[in-house]
Amino acid sequence: MLEQKFKEDSEDLYQNAPFGYLTIQKDGLIVNVNSTLLNLLSFQKEEILYKKKFYDLLNIGGKIYYETHIMPLLQLQGEISEINIDLKGNFDIKIPVLINAKRIRFEDDNEAYFRFSVLDISQRKQYELELLKAKKEIELANQKLKQSNQDLEDFAYIASHDLKTPLRNIKGILEIIAKKGDFLEAEKKERYFDIVISSATEMNKLIDNLLEFSRSGRLQEELQDLNLNNLLESIIQPFEKELTELGAYVKTEIKAKNIYVYPILFKRLFNNLINNSIKYRSQNPLEINITCEENYDNYLFSIKDNGIGIPSEHLNSIFKIFKSLKPDNSNNGIGLSVCKKIVEHHNGKIWVESELGKGSIFYFTIEKFDHKNTIN
To answer: 3-state SS string over the chain?
Structure first.
């Protein structure tokens, strides 16, 4: 009988093996199985033996995969090695395994049988997933490090150039005052001290803006699930008095209900963009249109105004630190560079479309976060 042919295997190799083992006929019928595999699949022996075929255990592909991949290889080569597949256990549990198989014959039987060894690689798969996750985290850390290095270069440039300018003014004036001493005319002394105070004020603003730029990526803040309409209302409200005085208005068209964002950063992002529209308004009554569309993996925002617009040669540089259309004591080019950093913290991108004299449209995306995160 067929059971007798596998008796020795069942009592020795099969039952005591660290691997799962099973033997099938050419049609796939399972004619022997060991305890290791039964335990792995959470089946009783009577549920499988002579009742299930090997392809019934395949999670994907089933009979078609068995007939087009596994059996042709076994018939042609007599064996297969290290095929990575998923088996379907009891209660439809999915188990990743590595299988090897070879053809066997018995002296008194011309029919070929096929013996499979089955290695559970669930833990290996888990390690692979963890390694993949670690790799992605390293790549993200490297990207942040690269950006940080770029920020440091920007800071070094500012420190060596922009900050030196007011310092040179202060040093030069103080040297004149020290050299002239009591012979310096009162009127000139007063004017020189005004220059010193003005240069010190300018440098102080520059330092404050540098701190603002650096802090935009270093807030200890958690993602929050917020109602977008309520959030925008709280952002726009502080501007109402100024907008009323300018005869301006803000129109919103929001096609998303809730959104995961870092609230403080998100508010700063909109504050900067609205301020930008106000600052660079034209002679016409200011109009600001804010829209939001929900896509598969992100939210797409736009802020459109009818301001003075941006010259085409400046479109590629306005998000860089200390780049401004009107560089002066009140415009150090911080706002849009901060916007870029905030959007990037939300795994998004920001860009602008503009035509001189016809206004601008700032677009940015916010990733759909499916878990909470913290900025460190």
So the answer is: CHHHHCHHHHHHHHHHCCCEEEEECCCCEEEEECHHHHHHHCCCHHHHCCCCEHHHHECCCHHHHHHHHHHHHHHHHCEEEEEEEEEECHHHCEEEEEEEEEEEEECCEEEEEEEEEEEECHHHHHHHHHHHHHHHHHHHHHHHHHHHHHHHHHHHHHHHCCCHHHHHHHHHHHHHHHHHHHHCCHHHHHHHHHHHHHHHHHHHHHHHHHHHHHHCCCCCCECEEEEHHHHHHHHHHHHHHHHHHHCCEEEEEECCCEEEECHHHHHHHHHHHHHHHHHCCCCCCCEEEEEEEECCCEEEEEEEECCCCCCHHHCCCCCCCCCCCCCECCECCCHHHHHHHHHHHCCCCEEEEECCCCCEEEEEEEECCCCCCECC
